[in-house]
């Protein structure tokens, strides 16, 4: 895709990945999970001559969306809106949780899409890590947030998590996509590897190789 603009940027003390995705034709870009280093992210976008018009949130944890966490204020979508005219795209189940005025929010669901020039970005609702977790698919690329990691998957021991829903999201949604899909996770948790493929994850990710949902739940500490 010659029109595609794509940058993966590690930011913050929790090894978060932030993504800039856009069109080299229209110079419009979306930014995914900008919770850290707002000035740096803006500098990168401007140096690449890209205009941020959309803020995409995979889920509403503070290290992805911003907000107050353990006595620390984490930059996020609210701060970014002070510097650019953009809308914040978040799944409808978590729209009330993000510290952004409702007028600036676009509530997404399973049918949502976003046009970036001639490119079409699809929203895939993948509950489990949080109720409103979502992934973003553009052609053969998937930004998976904290739903799917390289060799692992999202935590399910946090408020709002659901191990059963995560299993369904992984097996009935993400694993149904083309095996050659490139996967770009929400954190840099795999030393020396910043992305993967669904084919690789199907082969080597232990969380995708349980014989049943009950076996997955037992391994995650639920059921027996």
Protein model, in words:
- This protein is an alpha/beta fold and 224 residues long.
- The protein has one domain: 4-Layer Sandwich (Metallo-beta-lactamase, Chain A).
- 20% of the residues lie in helices and 33% in strands.
- The chain has 6 helices and 16 strands.
- It has helices at residues 38-47, 62-65, 77-81, 163-173, 198-204, 213-219, and strands spanning 4-11, 16-23, 28-32, 51-56, 67-69, 72-74, 87-91, 105-108, 113-116, 119-125, 134-138, 141-145, 148-149, 152-153, 182-185, 196-197.
- The strands form 4 sheets. Strands 1-2-3-4-7-8 form a 6-stranded mixed sheet, with helices on one face.
- Strand 5 and strand 6 (72-74) form a beta hairpin.
- The protein is globular and about 50 Å long.
- It starts with a strand and ends in a 5-residue tail after the last helix.
């Amino acid at each position: 895709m010659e029109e595609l603009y794509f940058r993966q940027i590690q930011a913050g003390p929790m090894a978060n990945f932030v993504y800039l995705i856009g069109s080299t034709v229209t110079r419009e870009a979306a930014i995914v999970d900008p919770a850290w280093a707002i000035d740096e992210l803006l500098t990168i976008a401007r140096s690449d001559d890209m205009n941020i018009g959309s803020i995409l949130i995979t889920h509403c944890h503070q290290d992805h969306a911003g907000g107050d966490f353990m006595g620390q204020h984490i930059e996020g979508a609210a701060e970014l809106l002070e510097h650019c005219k953009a809308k914040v795209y978040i799944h409808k189940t978590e729209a009330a949780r993000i510290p952004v005025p409702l007028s600036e929010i676009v509530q997404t669901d399973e049918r949502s899409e976003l046009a970036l020039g001639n490119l079409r970005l699809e929203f895939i609702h993948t509950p489990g890590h949080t109720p409103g977790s979502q992934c973003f698919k553009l052609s053969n690329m998937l930004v998976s947030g904290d739903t799917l990691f390289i060799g692992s998957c999202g935590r399910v021991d946090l408020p709002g998590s659901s191990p059963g829903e995560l299993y369904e999201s992984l097996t009935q949604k993400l694993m149904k996509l083309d095996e050659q899909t490139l996967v770009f996770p929400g954190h840099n948790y795999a030393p020396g590897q910043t992305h993967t493929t669904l084919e690789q994850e199907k082969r080597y990710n232990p969380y995708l190789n349980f014989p049943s949902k009950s076996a997955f739940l037992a391994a995650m500490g639920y059921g027996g």
